[in-house]
Design brief:
Radius of gyration: 13 Å
Strand order of the largest sheet: 2-1-3-4-5
Order of helices and strands: EHEHEHEHEH
Oligomer: single chain
Length: about 120
């Protein structure tokens, strides 16, 4: 079981991911933007950040850069439905374990998270 922070401003996506990961036995905290995700990080410890790239306040790339600096052991995965943003994130391969394209299936998100967590073990 892992502690996972999900940052996504789309409620339906955040809820889908939360439910999928909780079914897998993980503890999940959801933040609907990057600033709220930073607030959650200041209060709790997480094994994985799963963040949308395009969000208000603090986008997923800025959030990933901050997390990589402040919490170097935490795994980072990014999600995006926008090809241009996915390309921008691919330049951050050193920071992000993977960039997941939206929409994704239940199996795709579970497999991606399992791989990210296994890579950190």
């Amino acid at each position: 079981m892992a502690d996972i922070l999900v940052a996504d401003d789309e409620p339906s996506v955040a809820e889908f991911v939360r439910r999928a990961l909780e079914l897998r036995g993980h503890r999940v905290v959801v933040a609907d933007d990057g600033l709220k995700a930073m607030d959650a990080l200041s209060r709790d410890r997480f094994d994985l950040l799963l963040s949308d790239i395009v969000m208000p306040g603090l986008d997923g790339i800025a959030l990933a850069l901050k997390v990589a600096k402040d919490f170097p052991a935490m795994r980072i995965m990014l999600m995006s439905g926008y090809a241009q943003e996915r390309q921008r994130a691919h330049n951050l391969d050193v920071l992000a374990h993977r960039v997941l394209s939206k929409p994704f299936t239940l199996q795709e998100i579970m497999t991606a998270v399992d791989e990210a967590l296994a890579a950190s073990a």
